[in-house]
Amino acid sequence: MTPVCRLDQIEVEGGVAALVDGVAVAIFRTHDGNVYAMSNYDPFSRASVLARGIVGDRGGTPFVASPMHKQAFDLRTGQCLDDAAVRVPTYDVRVDGGVVLVGPPQET
Amino acid sequence: MSPHLRKTLVVVGHGMVGHRFVQAAIERGLTETHDVVVVGEEPRPAYDRVALTSFFEVGAKALSLLPAGRYDDPRVTLRTGAEVVAVSPRQRIVTLNTGEDLHYDELVLATGAYPFVPPVPGKDLDNVFVYRTIEDLEAIRKAARKARSGAVVGGGLLGLEAANALRQLGLETHVVELAPRLMAVQVDAAGGRTLSRHVEQLGLTVHTGAMTEAVLGTGKVTGMALKDRKSLDVDLVVFSAGIRPRDGLGRGADLAVAERGGILVDEHCRTSDEHIYAIGECAAPGGVMYGLVAPGYAMAEVVVDTLLGGAGTFTGADMSTKLKLLGVDVASFGDAHATTEGALELVYSDAVAGVYKKLVISEDGKQLLGGVLVGDASAYGILRPMLATATNPGIELPENPEDLILPTGRGLTDIGLPDAAQVCSCNDVTKADIVAAAAAGTTTRAGSTCGSCKVQTKRIIEDYYASQGEVVDRSICEHFPLTRQELLDVVAVHGYRSFDQVVEAHGTGRGCDVCKPAIASILASLLGGHVLDGSTRTLQDTNDAYLANIQRNGTYSVVPRIPGGEITPEGLIVIGEVARDFGLYTKITGGQRIDLFGARMEELPAIWRRLVDAGFESGHAYGKALRTVKSCVGSTWCRYGVQDSVGLAIDLELRYRGLRSPHKLKGGVSGCARECAEARGKDFGVIATEKGWNLYVGGNGGATPAHARLLAGDLDTETLVRYLDRFLMYYVRTADRLQRTAPWIDALDGGLDRVREVVVDDALGLGSELEAAMARHVGGYFDEWRATIDDPEKLARFVSFVNAPDVPDPHISFRDARGQIAPADVDGPVVLGSTIPVGAPR
Ligand code: SRM
Ligand SMILES: Cc1cc2nc3c(=O)[nH]c(=O)nc-3n(C[C@H](O)[C@H](O)[C@H](O)COP(=O)(O)OP(=O)(O)OC[C@H]3O[C@@H](n4cnc5c(N)ncnc54)[C@H](O)[C@@H]3O)c2cc1C
Ligand code: SF4
Ligand code: FES
């Protein structure tokens, strides 16, 4: 797994983008202390921006809203909550000694 | 039908009811058989007497019920400025003051009422007035110019209206009422006290239980003597101590008259002469005179129906009233004084908030018999249809009737109204009528007269759409059961400073892209501070989060403020140099400034460093905030200009820059009526006049364009700014999220009139508070971009990758378009090292 930043570099309910093996990955931190990683690429607007979205919950599901046109993505699975046909890749992520580590894409 | 068979119908009086009668006669086809001649004594066609007090603000034209001056139907003749002096039932003629006789087949008397003036000494002095017609108000206004203080005799509904008018005219105002409380007919003692407190807070002096003995003075009024009290030092007196039916024509024609006045009529509104009808305030159906417009309208409909051979009858009307008196809601309905045997009273009173509500319910707790609402009459719409009367059992009360009057309207929406419930009493519109109109995409007359049923009507329409599966969301999102305005109130009242505090106390979950930016905006409006400070950063919408507008490829645009569109050659050169050095696309915007596109996020601080050093500041193109105040060149250069429009536009833009609001805000200032700045297309538009400035509000471009409407005219600059301060803060405090000023004004109960009441008349007494809030904003303003580039913590966010801050995002690439850069669309995520896309030309 690749160390990308310290946990305190990610704001609570905020996100950062990191380069992991040449790929842009968005890493989020939620209010309950969890950390999630998914592709930074928004398939709707075709721009690499998801890390800049607002983080919150929909009916208890943690999600990020694309900063471009507000589509919501489940932070745990990458599933788009507004379009069942769309899903973005998620990545293994772990916090170790205050450092965030990102692994390979998760199998679906 | 051949013309010689046509009959002649004469209507005496062109007031509200006479006009409604003619309208109904045309609509229902009575003019197919009858020529209608209307004789009205006033110099103008009928106008909205109910709204008489707004004459000072809106003028006679806006009050007119017949702005064209005549009816579309050629078979109706209107003669204004003509008085009927006698009726001869036997010959069926009426005689005019000109001596002319008019023959009639049927006669309708709609002569209204006149103000009662008690026979006290001095009542005929100069500067003694009544309050009934536009001419009365014109005379009062003229006298008020030379007066300092005035008294209104009568603390009833009309007396308080008149007092409000005197106050608006700048007079120190006294209200003298014989009864021990204000509005004695409608409200009970406790309600009267709450009302008095409100009225006194507005600076009026109330004298209850006071008897007027004489108006003092020789020639002109100098004071007023009260029994057993000190006399009042006033130079103007308005009598508003009740009205009396104008039944003189009836008496002269030997028609039967009710004991307490008014022409006696049967349930068809027919007088004791079979060809003469009487309707409105001059009539006394069953001996009772009704001093309200709704019963008069009902009588007008009944007479048209009768003349068409129908069976309609008038069997009495409910005397419910809801009014806004001096900015205070007052409603009274049914058995307000609980005189029914065994009636129970349910009272809610909050002396601090100035709210008093009382329900009168039947002994078994099932029927609503009446009530009084002071300070908050929002429940009136739902309560009135529930009311039980002699002829109508109303709607059974819910288990906990107190829910109906407790604050925040718990349960109000859950009580279904039956279809037959009358929602608009002025125009007799039922719930079923409103639903049918909503379904057909048409409208009803509900809400068009006194306006008190508007809220209820809106709710029925919303419920209808909701029942059709369309989402009518009243709360902001799933996390808060509140509207934006309620959220703002909650934040202001509790003094919250963070999203966490608000969501823990009033919401559920962790918020979303709807409520977070809304709360961020509310916190910014109320507290000021930097939008990227601490925990508020993660609440900000896309553009606010980076103080720049995101573009289709994830880059940003940069818009420095160019107040009023005025810029020096040096300024232009700096912008040109920055654009050239960072390889940005440049365009003149529709808002009279320059936009630089294609900046990578990590470049924003360096770009702004250059701009700030050259004296530029944030243009807030990214915020729900003031954008631009567009100007035309004005009197500085233009041969037509009458004021310095550029100067004012700059001042206004600098005054309101940075103000966070429910949606973006735009202004415009034109130097003369040619309006080259398109100011009336803006949320606030100012147009220069010879004497000062006209202020327009509620303009909008976008998908639903609207022209701004006149709020106030010929203002000096100081007054203009004061009104604008109030207007903008009132908008910030009460609009919905993402609601521009035009739909906000439309949605306000009372619309533009309401805005005028608050902003110009200061009817709610909010003016100084709103001005103070704006003063805090102006005093607390700082440039967001300068504060950002000077703060390492905020700057830390402006990196492409947290672990590779110097690597430009490989996903972003540009192509050439007309000699400048443009985003190149990229399909799929870009992997660094495999395909390296073309970078920005540098
Ligand atoms: C740049 C500009 C177009 C141009 O090339 O001229 C523009 C560009 C955008 N407009 Fe606009 N509008 C621009 C003038 C206007 C005007 C004309 C004006 O201001 O005189 C209007 C109509 C007037 C009005 O607002 O009433 C206008 C009505 C809109 C609307 C519709 C608003 C509405 O009430 O329906 C939106 C959408 C919104 O705000 O929700 C919008 C939204 C946008 C946004 C901000 C969309 C977004 O969020 O990315 C665009 C990006 C701006 C950027 O990147 O800087 N823009 N937009 C103009 C910038 C003016 C400025 O200097 O700040
Ligand atoms: C300030 C104010 C506020 C009010 N607020 C409310 C309210 O909130 N709610 C409510 O329900 N009601 C209100 N009213 C009462 C309402 O205005 C009246 O009920 C309504 O106007 C009655 O209509 P009408 O046609 O019977 O009488 P009017 O509107 O008075 O019309 C009668 C007309 O007949 C004319 N006329 C009389 N005699 C002759 C003649 N011999 N020849 C020719 N013309 C003649 C008069 O000049 C007048 O124009 C208010 C009234 C005032 C003054
Ligand atoms: S809607 Fe108008 S302002 Fe927005 S991006 Fe399209 S063209 Fe530009
Ligand atoms: S009740 Fe007066 S307008 Fe509807």
TrEMBL record, chain A:
InterPro entries recorded: NirD, Rieske-like_NirD, Rieske_2Fe-2S, Rieske_2Fe-2S_sf
GO molecular function: 2 iron, 2 sulfur cluster binding; metal ion binding; monooxygenase activity; nitrite reductase [NAD(P)H] activity; oxidoreductase activity, acting on paired donors, with incorporation or reduction of molecular oxygen
Keyword terms of this UniProt record: 2Fe-2S, Iron, Iron-sulfur, Metal-binding, Nitrate assimilation, Oxidoreductase
Keyword presence, Metal-binding: yes
Gene Ontology BP term (one): nitrate assimilation
NCBIfam families: nirD_assim_sml
PROSITE patterns for the chain: NIRD, RIESKE
Lineage: Bacteria, Bacillati, Actinomycetota, Actinomycetes, Propionibacteriales
Domain named Rieske: residues: 2-102
Listed SUPFAM superfamilies: ISP domain
Source organism: Nocardioides agri
Protein name: Nitrite reductase small subunit NirD
Keyword flag Mitochondrion: no
